[in-house]
């Protein structure tokens, strides 16, 4: 077994939860950034 591999062994489900939560967090962050950029661009077009 690789060093530290025991941490990824089945540990009551936290590792599986992390495999789901991490990509969802990345996706949510990208959506937030896109929405923020769109709002800023929209505000800039109204003023200019």
What are the salient characteristics of this protein?
1 helix, mainly alpha, 0% strand, 71% helix, 48 residues
Please, could you describe this protein's structure?
The protein is mostly helical and 48 residues long. Helix content is 71%, strand content 0%. The protein has one helix at residues 14-47. The longest helix has 34 residues, at 14-47.
Ranges where pLDDT stays below 50 over 5 or more residues in a row are: none
Q: Determine Rg (CA atoms, Å).
A: 19 Å
Major β-sheet, in short? none
Structure annotation, total helices: 1
> Termini distance?
61 Å
Q: Work out the number of β strands.
A: 0
The gross shape turns out to be rod-shaped
Tell me the strand percentage band: under 5%
Output the helix-strand order: H
- Multimeric state: single chain
What's the average pLDDT?
A: 82
Class computed from helices, strands and strand pairing: mainly alpha
Which percent bin holds the helix content?
Answer: over 70%
